[in-house]
């Protein structure tokens, strides 16, 4: 009897191992936790946001009546939404351009060994690992209308006289938001590009230097084409994060002055949660989805074509 049980157990274990060796079974089994995570934490909120946007739900009445596309028509006709949409693109593209330039410079500089490299790496990564709310509050004091450290420094250099009132002027407030976001996000891109620079084939770079190619020619004709796939990944993640981020805007300006620095995510939060209009807030947030989908498709296509060539 014991031998029969042992044989049956061995047979079941062997069949189980053979089953797990098959790609058709092992692949879906390994992907199942990620699929469950996406369905529960991403898919359900997304479908619920679509439901809310088609109703007149509020905080006091979360189960509203069906109104169709009225919320979207109402949002498009408002000036504040058009301003938030424009600010979202300005905020994203300007910050991404600056982040790419700074990340490339720092990643190339950190390829060499020098004294204090560990300290420099720590200081570079500090904005990324520090709590965003605390660091943004520190920047809020740096942009203060009376006690601004930036204004004091510029006055010492005789570049300005008095205070600039960073957060009281729409143009300077938007610049301040971009500065804080760049300071926060460029460590992430720097780490990714450092891995890309270290993975470049050394023989190709050395051959180009032997042939007399200068720094700029090597960078634009060799380094940059080879870095495009990994740079595309960095841009994709950073763009998605920037489009959906509202922390910097909320802490620094809360969309002011006069709703001129709102982005789509902050406008959706303030109208949906603070304003109590869940349906309008959900409809505003859904405008992010097609933009992010198009951006992701374009960036992934560029990366795939670069890998093929």
Please, could you describe this protein's structure?
This protein has 309 residues and is mostly helical. The protein folds into 2 domains: 1-53, no CATH class; 71-308, MetI-like fold. It is 76% helix and 0% strand. The protein has 14 helices and no strands. It has helices at residues 2-20, 23-53, 70-76, 79-109, 117-129, 132-142, 149-156, 170-198, 202-210, 215-244, 247-252, 264-274, 278-286, 288-308. Helix 4 packs antiparallel against helix 10 and helix 5 (117-129) packs across helix 8 (170-198). The radius of gyration is 26 Å and the shape is globular. The mean pLDDT is 80.
Write a compact overview of the structure shown:
This protein has 309 residues and is mainly alpha-helical. The chain is built from 14 helices and no strands.
Features:
single chain, mainly alpha, MetI-like fold, globular
Radius of gyration: 26 Å
Number of helices: 14
- Mean pLDDT over the residues: 80
**Helix content estimate:** over 70%
Strand tally: 0
- Fourth-level CATH superfamily of the largest domain: MetI-like
**What would CATH call the class of the largest domain?**
Mainly Alpha
Shape: globular
What order do the SSEs take from the amino end to the carboxyl end, as H and E? HHHHHHHHHHHHHH
* Uncertain parts: none
At the third CATH level, what is the topology name of the largest domain?
MetI-like fold
Number of domains: 2
Structural category: mainly alpha
* Largest sheet properties: none
């Amino acid at each position: 009897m014991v031998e029969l049980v042992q044989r049956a157990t061995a047979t079941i274990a062997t069949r189980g191992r053979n089953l797990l060796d098959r790609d058709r079974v092992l692949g879906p089994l390994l992907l199942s936790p990620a699929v469950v995570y996406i369905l529960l934490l991403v898919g359900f909120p997304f479908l619920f946001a679509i439901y809310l946007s088609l109703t007149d739900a509020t905080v006091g009445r979360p189960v509203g009546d069906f109104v169709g596309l009225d919320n979207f028509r109402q949002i498009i006709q408002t000036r504040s939404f058009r301003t938030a949409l424009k600010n979202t693109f300005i905020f994203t593209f300007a910050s991404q351009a600056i982040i790419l330039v700074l990340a490339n410079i720092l990643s190339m500089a950190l390829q060499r060994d020098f004294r204090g490299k560990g300290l420099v790496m720590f200081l570079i990564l500090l904005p990324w690992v520090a709590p965003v709310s605390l660091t943004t509050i520190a920047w809020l004091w740096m942009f203060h209308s009376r006690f601004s450290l930036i204004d004091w420094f510029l006055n010492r250099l005789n570049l300005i006289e008095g205070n600039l009132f960073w957060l009281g002027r729409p143009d300077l407030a938007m610049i301040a938001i971009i500065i804080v976001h760049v300071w926060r996000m460029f460590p992430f891109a720097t780490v990714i590009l450092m891995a890309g620079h270290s993975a470049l084939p050394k023989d190709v770079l050395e051959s180009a230097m032997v042939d007399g190619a200068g720094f700029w020619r090597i960078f634009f004709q060799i380094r940059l084409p080879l870095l495009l796939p990994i740079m595309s990944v960095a841009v994709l993640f950073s763009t998605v994060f920037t489009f959906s981020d509202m922390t910097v805007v909320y802490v620094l300006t809360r969309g002011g002055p006069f709703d001129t620095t709102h982005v789509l995510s902050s406008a959706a939060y303030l109208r949906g949660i603070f304003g109590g209009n869940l349906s309008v807030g959900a409809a505003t947030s859904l405008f992010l989805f097609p933009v992010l989908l198009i951006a992701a498709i374009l960036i992934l296509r560029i990366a795939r074509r670069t890998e093929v060539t």
